[in-house]
């Protein structure tokens, strides 16, 4: 089993504020890291193996303050679906978890934003999720009870409707 769960997220006021280096840095961490780690792991993974990628609700809803992050998470969605099809014949499942607003260190990038903006980041449940609330989704996708699931996304986002 491989779980890809690394992420870089930086906020920008506008597209003009995103440097080439910042754009590349987001893709290096969020997308290239998954690609190279997965490629290396597949050399050792056989039938019954599984890969679980971490995307984001932003891949489905967009986020105007997180354009590079949102773009990389969208790329992960496409990669997960394509890889699931590619690995069917090898008996390896590939799925993903798409967290919504989760209270983690990555959220500290918004420390300079006003209270109203932070309130709007909360889910329809009126709060941010806790990291422990993500664990069951990963465990389910890793276990044999999900052996008929591949190329899919579990949205753990407090009721944010994604239509995706």
List the helices and strands and how they pair.
Elements: E1 2-4, H1 20-42, E2 50-54, H2 58-61, H3 67-86, E3 93-99, H4 115-121, H5 135-142, E4 153-156
Helix pairs in contact: 1-3
Question: Would you mind describing this structure in some detail?
Answer:
This protein is of the alpha/beta class and 164 residues long. It has one domain (2-7, 15-156): Rossmann fold (3-Layer(aba) Sandwich). It is 38% helix and 12% strand. It is built from five helices and four strands. The chain has helices at 20-42, 58-61, 67-86, 115-121, 135-142, and strands at residues 2-4, 50-54, 93-99, 153-156. A four-stranded parallel β-sheet has the order 1-2-3-4, sandwiched between helices. It is globular, with a radius of gyration of 16 Å. It starts with a strand and ends in an 8-residue tail after the last strand. The mean pLDDT is 91.
Give the gist of this structure.
By secondary structure, the chain is an alpha/beta fold. The chain has helices at 20-42, 58-61, 67-86, 115-121, 135-142; strands at residues 2-4, 50-54, 93-99, 153-156. The protein has one domain (2-7, 15-156): 3-Layer(aba) Sandwich (Rossmann fold).
């Amino acid at each position: 089993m491989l779980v890809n769960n690394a992420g870089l997220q930086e906020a920008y006021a506008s597209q003009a504020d995103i440097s080439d280096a910042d754009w590349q840095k987001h893709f290096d961490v969020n997308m290239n890291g998954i690609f190279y780690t997965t490629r290396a792991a597949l050399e050792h993974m056989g039938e019954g193996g599984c890969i679980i990628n971490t995307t984001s609700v932003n891949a489905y809803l967009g986020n105007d303050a997180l354009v590079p992050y949102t773009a990389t998470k969208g790329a992960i969605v496409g990669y997960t679906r394509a890889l699931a099809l590619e690995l069917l014949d090898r008996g390896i499942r590939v799925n993903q978890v798409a967290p919504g607003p989760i209270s983690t260190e990555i959220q500290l990038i918004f420390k300079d934003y006003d209270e109203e903006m932070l309130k709007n980041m909360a889910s329809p449940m009126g709060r941010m999720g806790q990291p422990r609330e993500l664990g069951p989704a990963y465990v389910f996708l890793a276990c044999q009870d999900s052996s008929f699931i591949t190329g899919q996304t579990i949205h753990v986002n407090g009721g944010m409707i994604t239509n995706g």
